[in-house]
Amino acid sequence: MSDPSAPTPPYDPTQQPPTPPAPPAPPTQPENPYASTAAPGAPLSQEADIQWASFAHLGGIFSFLPSLIIWLIFKDRGRFTNTEAKEALNFQLTLLIAEVAAAILSVILTVITFGFFGFNIGWLIWVVGVIFSIIAFMQVKDGRGYRYPFAIRMIK
C-alpha cells in the first residue's frame, strides 16, 4: 500500500495520458480457391471469341436480349464477337420493328374489316428469325463471318 501521507506528484497539464493499446487487426480472409484468375476484361482466346460470337446469333431464337447482352459484355474483348454480335443484334432489332409493324397492321385490318382479315403474321416473322439465326450460328461456329440478307444496320 502507499503511504497516505506521501506527497502526490504535482499535476502537469502538458502531459498526455497514456494511449490505449491498438485493437487487434481483424483476421485475414482465406484466399478463395474458386476465384477467377483472369482479370476482368481480359481478351478472349480465339476459341472463346468464336464461341461467344456464335452464341450471339443463336440467342436470336429468344429475342434481341441475348445478342445485346453478349455485345455489351464482350465488345471490347474480342473483334470477332464484337462484329458478329452487332450483326445479330441489328438483325434482331430489324425483326422486332417488323413484328411491331405487323401487330399494328393486324389491329388496323381487324378494325377496318370487322375481324375478317385480322390475322397476325408475327409468328411468321419469328420463324424467319429462327431459321436465319440457326444458319448464322452454323457458319459463325466454324469461324466464318455471317451477314444477314436483310437487316437495318443501326449499330455500326
Task: Characterise the protein shown here.
With 156 residues, the chain is mainly alpha-helical. The protein has a domain of 95 residues. It is 49% helix and 0% strand. It contains four helices and no strands. Helix 1 packs antiparallel against helix 4 and helix 3 runs antiparallel to helix 4. The N and C termini lie far apart (89 Å).
Shape: elongated
Give the N-terminus to C-terminus distance in angstroms.
89 Å
Relative strand content = under 5%
Low-confidence sequence ranges: none
Biggest sheet, open or closed, and with what strands and sense?
none
Summed over residues and divided by their number, the pLDDT gives a mean of: 83
Radius of gyration: 33 Å
Provide the structure class.
mainly alpha
The count of β-strands is 0
Percent of residues in helices: 40-55%
Number of helices: 4
Output the helix-strand order: HHHH
